[in-house]
Amino acid sequence: MAKDKDFKSGSRKITIGLPRALLYERYHVLWKTFFEQLGFEVRVSPPTTLQTMNVGSARAIDEMCLSVKLYLGHVESLVGKCDYILVPRISNFGIRRYLCTTFEGMYDICRNLFRKSGQRFLSYNIDVVHGLEEEAAFVFMAEQLKIPKKNAAKAYKTAKKAESEDWKLQVKQQEALYKNDGLKVMIASHSYVERDAYIGKPVTDFLKNAGVTVLYADVMDRKDAIKQGSRLSPTMRWELNREIAGGIYENHKRVDGIILLSVFPCGPDAMTNDMIIRRMKGTPILNLMLDAQSGMAGVETRLESFIDILTFQKNK
Questions:
Q1: In this prediction, what percent of the chain has a pLDDT beyond 90?
Q2: What angle do CA 192, 196, 202 make, to 5 degrees?
Q3: β strands within the chain, DSSP E
Q4: Average pLDDT rounded to a whole number, residues 169-179
Q5: pTM for this one?
Q6: At what angle do helices 297-315 and 201-209 cross, to 10 degrees?
Q7: Closest to 124 (Cα-Cα) out of 144, 109, 110
Q8: Which pLDDT belongs to residue 260?
Q9: DSSP class of residue 278?
Q10: How far is Cα 127 from Cα 22, in angstroms, rounded to an integer?
Q11: Measured CA distances, 245 to 2, 7, 132, 280 (Å)
Q12: Are 126 and 91 contacting, i.e. CB atoms less than 8 angstroms apart?
């Protein structure tokens, strides 16, 4: 976090803004619980809309993927409405467990793009390869907000427990869905794509309205997903893609088809999706790329065709 002047809040609570994009779906329970345990107020940006995309696209360069453009739109929606906006810097969780480089640079990108707004940004740094672990990063971040180290450590443990319980519940609920009758389709995508209200949810809603049971490849025990992902590709270096690949490898025989849902132009997905298509022979796969379009007509046509193919094969 940059060395800003101490924030004087008076009698009111300091407000921490959370952009509802990128790593929000993965960490929102951890973040919200941590800050609330320390007495801060949390403000989350509204669900993504067309305006969010347009605003973010105006801030971004053309080479940035759609998910980053949405993120910048969410950040802008919080500017001036909270004391700090959380933009974490996460490099890796160990050897060959890296995140996209965007997650390393996003804090600096936001500080630069919104430097004239007067908005303060908050961050924590995770780089396990160089000895920077998550708990220490959270404690250090809290210390920058004048929180005693002991209180910060206690808040982190409470938040981590809440995150673990929430994830176990999600895994348990999905496991029950595998027992459903009828057509089952696995969405293999990043959580910030498949769960986004504007770009991902219309896809899952369309499938559900067609009577399809929707499963998510990345919803399983994450340690097991990493192991299974290594069996599919031992050299894959991106943590999130390895989890998705692990979910596919572990559960592909329990579904009728797989949809690789990506945004343009995601570099890691461009390489890993091609590998998945080549390695997972015998499983029907639809490679669906989303861009900054404002309509769903083309996407729905491809989904309808895929459902028809899967239905024909299942009946046959």
A1: 85
A2: 135
A3: 15-18, 41-44, 84-86, 89-92, 120-122, 125-127, 184-188, 213-216, 257-263, 285-290
A4: 97
A5: 0.93
A6: 40
A7: 144
A8: 97
A9: H
A10: 18
A11: 36, 44, 26, 10
A12: yes
